[in-house]
Design brief:
149 residues, elongated, mainly alpha
């Protein structure tokens, strides 16, 4: 009565619940993915270069944001590779590319958090300086200048 059906059930039970996709086709066609990545790279590069020319940015902040810009450019290139070049048919290269993308994204977020912490530190420093200025006694010369005489 169900000799053959029982074996099929056993085989289905032993098989993983998902079947890995081993498509020889990239996730996004290279003719679409690579030009988009090139435009994103140009935008990030232009922004990173603009940071270098702005004299109002403190040096520490400029270095942090430049490092993050360079990391974003690497991530963009790697993401373009992961989406448009490597295929699931080569599982080790596919997994390594996506692992690297996720790792770089984690580093980018960490650097952004460092930038935010540095901004908070600069804000606290500016508040302390303002408080010091506000509590400083006003000299007679400053009173004359402030009264418009």
């Amino acid at each position: 009565m169900g000799g053959r059906g029982g074996r099929e059930r056993d085989a289905a039970r032993d098989r993983p619940s998902f079947m890995p996709v081993t498509s020889p086709i990239p996730l996004l066609h290279p003719a679409l993915g690579l030009p988009i990545a090139a435009v994103v790279l140009l935008v990030i590069a232009a922004h990173t270069l603009a940071l270098q020319r702005d004299p109002d940015i403190p040096p520490v902040r400029r270095r942090i944001r430049t490092a993050n810009g360079v990391l974003m450019m690497f991530t963009t290139a790697l993401l373009a590779y992961a989406i448009s070049v490597v295929t699931p048919a080569t599982p080790s290269a596919f997994a390594l590319a996506w692992l690297a993308v996720v790792g770089l994204l984690a580093i980018i977020i960490t650097v952004a958090l460092l930038d935010a912490a540095h901004t908070l530190r600069l804000h606290a420093q500016a508040r302390r300086e303002l408080r010091r200025e506000a509590t400083r006694p006003i000299s007679k010369e400053d009173r004359r200048e402030g009264s418009g005489h």
